[in-house]
Amino acid sequence: MLDTYIVPLHLKNKVKQIGFREIDYDRNQVKTRKLFFWRIIALIGWGAFFITILLSSCNKDPVWASEITPLSIAQSQIGLGEIGGNNKGIYVRQYLNGRENLPWCAGFVSYCIKKAGYSLPYFLKAKSYLEIGKKIARWNLSSNDIVIFSRQGGGHIGIVEQVVNNGFVSIEGNLGDYPAKVKRVNHIFEDRGILGFVRLARRIK
Q1: Is the pLDDT at 44 greater than 60, yes or no?
Q2: CA distance linking residue 66 with residue 68, whole number of Å
Q3: Residue ranges of the domains in the chain?
Q4: Measured between alpha carbons, how far is residue 139 from residues 35, 87, 161 in Å?
C-alpha cells in the first residue's frame, strides 16, 4: 500500500511522479475508517465462531445412536477367539456370558448386540434368531442385518458387514478349526446353507 500525505496544491504533480498518493482529507479520518473496518471484520469472525459452536452442539447425536452398532462391536473383535483349547479362552467366556466348552458363534453375535445397547435375550443358539426381528429378503439386505446358516449339529450366524453384487461379507465367530477366531467371511446368495436374514428392531436398554 502506498504511503499517503497531504501536500500543497502546487506540489501535487511532483508527488504523483515520485510514487505517493494524494489525499484531500484529514489523516485522523483515515485512521478512524481503518479502525472501523477491522472492528467489523472481528465482529464477523466472532459471530461465525459462535454460530459454528451452536450448530455443532444442536446436531450432535448420542454416541450410541450414530457410532455404536452390533456391526461396529463385531469389527472391534476381529482376530479374537479361542485360546488354550477348542471353545475355550477369555474371549470365548466373554461371548458365552461366562461359560466355556460350547459353540460360541451365537454367543458372539449376542455379545455384539448387547454391547450396542439392544434389549434382547442373550441367545446361545444361532437358529433362535430366526424367531425374532423382521425377516429380510436378500435384495433388501444391508449392513447390521443378521444372517443365519444351517450347519451340521445345529446352526451358524454372523453379522452382515457389506452387501456386494452377488453376495455379502459377514463377520462371524467360531468358524473353522481351532483356534477359531472372529473373522470376515465372503458368501454368495446362492449358498444353500443360508437359512435366512433378520433385521433387529433397535430396543434400547
Answers
A1: yes
A2: 6
A3: 4-59, 64-199
A4: 65, 34, 15
